[in-house]
Amino acid sequence: MAPKLERFTSPGKGNGLRATGRIRKGEPVYSAEPLACCVSNKAARQVCHHCFTRCESLLRCSQCKMARYCDTTCQKRAWSGHKRECKCLRSLLPRIPTDSVRLAARIIFTLLTPSQRSSEELYTLEEHESHLSSMSPQKREGLSQLAAMLQLYLQQEVPNLTQEMTLVIPPSCQEPLSLIAKVTCNCFTISDGELQEIGVGLYPSLSLLNHDCRPNCVMVFEGTKLHLRAVQDISPKEELTISYIETVSLTVDRQRQLEEQYHFTCHCQRCDSQDMDGLMLSGDEAAWRPMKEALPRLGELQAEFDWQAVLEGCSSLLLPDGGAVPDENLYKLRVTDLALDACVHLAHWEEALRYGEKTLPVYRQYYPDPHPVHGVQLMRVGKLHHYLGHIEETMDTFTQAYEIIKVTHGSAHPLTCDLRGKLEECRAELSQPSSSR
Ligand SMILES: [Zn+2]
Ligand SMILES: [Zn+2]
Ligand SMILES: [Zn+2]
Asked: Which string of DSSP letters, residue by residue, matches 118-182?
């Protein structure tokens, strides 16, 4: 099949990818395996380090006690990639290096093993930008510490990093600092079906994709394989874009994040028109300001899994005159989402459903194109309806989710198949005589 995308020079943005012909909404555009990837430290106990599946009980590598696998098959398959890493991990115990250090080390191991690398088909690691020259001194300092950590971590396996790398690795990637900078700017977060982070990976060809705050493509994962899919109709020669960040956020916040993390100023149409900022700030500021101010603390409580405290904090904000703030308000939406999350963890199903339902019309407004976040939110609400025995509502919500997920994930993706199964279940339940329900 002829490739649907090609590399080009995007005016004002440098390298980019564009469509070679017409691409319709919902079409797959490109799929890629990573040059290297690893499970995130925070998911390391719940996810198989080979196939990236979430599992209740995992076998632990007896040597490093860090890597975990579904079964001996996954463990055996992972060994050639894990062997060198295992030795490095052991040498640092009980310390565990950060995700970017572990990923950079895996990249080095891959590069030191000569082979054909399809992941670099369109763009090589050598060509990746490090953005070191445009970084603030503090950021550079942070990266220097990571680079020092990388050298310490690799000591057992690649004691003379710079020298060994000179033999096989292009000059621009040799310095640990430049490599770490390239990795942190260009790696993608690998997420599971619920959009929870499970790993990090470098997909060189797709690092060419530029950002837009209303992108025409989305990326979804199947294990560690990355799929790029169109969420709008795309014309021949049109640039393909993804969003590097959460799109439901104010222009000023998006711009700040893009500058700090990715070192560019966004000039997309949404940024120029400050699209939806007014809607996101709707309501009386005196009423929504307490919500805005409470969010950092609520986020901390969420990170500590103190769900009771999260729920108390959220409901005290939403109950008294939370009604005075329109549901479209961004801060109210975030507080409502946190309340939903807390209720689900505390098994307060009816309350969870009330919060979940409040968010749906707002998600519809803020995600004009099919988006995985919107699809997954509908699935969460659908599951709550199902759990509470509301079959008609379940059917309706799952149907809306399906319309989105089949575009963003495609009909063969496990998440779409799972959803199809759930819809069939509902249909069967609805067709039973009501007395037996
Ligand atoms: Zn596995
Ligand atoms: Zn190990
Ligand atoms: Zn923008």
From this structure: GGGSS--GGG----GGGS-HHHHHHHHHHHHHHHHHHTTT-TTHHHHHHHHS-GGGTSHHHHHHH
Q: 38-186 has which fold? A: Annexin V; domain 1 (1.10.220)
**Using one digit for the tens of pLDDT, what is the confidence trace for 101-126?**
999 999 989 888 877 778 888 888 88
- Residues 6 or more apart whose Cβ sits within 8 Å of residue 324: 283, 284, 287
Task: Give residue 35's identity as a one-letter amino acid code.
Answer: L
Determine the distance separating the centroid of ligand 1 and the alpha carbon of 122, expressed in angstroms: 29
51-68 tens-digit pLDDT = 999 998 999 999 999 999
Q: Is the pTM of this model over 0.90?
A: yes
Number of the ligand closest to the Cα of 266: 3
Nearest-ligand number for the alpha carbon of 254: 3
Class of domain 279-436: mainly alpha
Distance between Cα 324 and ligand 1 center (Å): 49
Distance (angstroms) between ligand 2 centre and the Cα of 84 equals: 9
Helix (H) or strand (E) holding 31: strand 28-32
Is there a shared CATH topology between the 38-186 domain and the 279-436 domain?
A: no
* Domain layout of the chain by residue ranges: 38-186, 279-436
Q: Which ligand is located closest to the Cα atom of residue 243? A: 3
